[in-house]
From TrEMBL:
Gene Ontology MF, one: hydrolase activity
Name listed for the protein in its UniProt record: Thioesterase family protein
Organism this protein belongs to: Nocardioides abyssi
Gene3D superfamilies: Hotdog Thioesterase
InterPro entries: 4-hydroxybenzoyl-CoA_TE (IPR050563), HotDog_dom_sf (IPR029069)
Stored Pfam families: 4HBT_2
Amino acid sequence: MRHVYECPVRWADQDPLGHVNNVVYVDYLQEARVDMLRTHGRSRQAEELAEGVVVVRTEVGYRAPLFFDFRPVLIECWVTEVRAATFTLAYEVFHQREDGTRKVYLQASTVLTPYVFAEERPRRLTAEERESLAAYLEPTEVAPRATFSERPASAGQYPVQVRFSDVDVYRHVNNVTYFEYFQEARIHYFAQVWREPARTARQPVLVIARKEVEYRVPVLHREEPYDAWSWISRVGTTSFDVQAELRDGDTVLARAHTTAVVVDPEAQRPTPPAPAFRDALLAQLG
């Protein structure tokens, strides 16, 4: 069994290219997940999974740009794995065509764990929760995870200031907001890397093709900023990978792996970056 959620698209969800921003999709997934667990929980205890969980890992593959539409976008979600203390949900974001086929914009998965917020610790799934999740279970082969490299000396540093509105009712920064932090750090890093090439050539237009975020330690609201570090880990013909860490001193709070693609804004197709920009990326590889 799969759950389908009708998600409204807001005008403010768009980026400068007129696409729904890559961060906003993760918010859509959260809405679909909460709706699924609230709608089909078989007991009060099972319904607590709707809000009584934390996200351990999120993997997102962006398939096509989604533009603003007064129609809601559909999000199908189901369970792919249930373990002792975690479960994994898969998602597909799409519009249904008149002939019954789908226009797919995004495919994703999240690994979640039940959490005792009063004690700040994860817990095991109960028998009732496992039974409730089993109704949606469609086992799927796990995709290989990205390999993280060591942070190089050339990495860019960005201070992340947590806003009060970033924090949920449990006083943790919401999982969606991490994507925003890494996006801000990445844009700041690109501005530094491409400062010189931008003096003589037009800056490339980028779209995000894939992103993985691994959550390790909850981020809390405080006056002092956290540190986000970003660096280039691979350079291809039309795409490149950026890795990042969110840190509190020596403690890694979260890690991200992002694949960005250079596109021709008129043709809406991948294209190689100008040589000066490619050289700047390669220089970051050392």
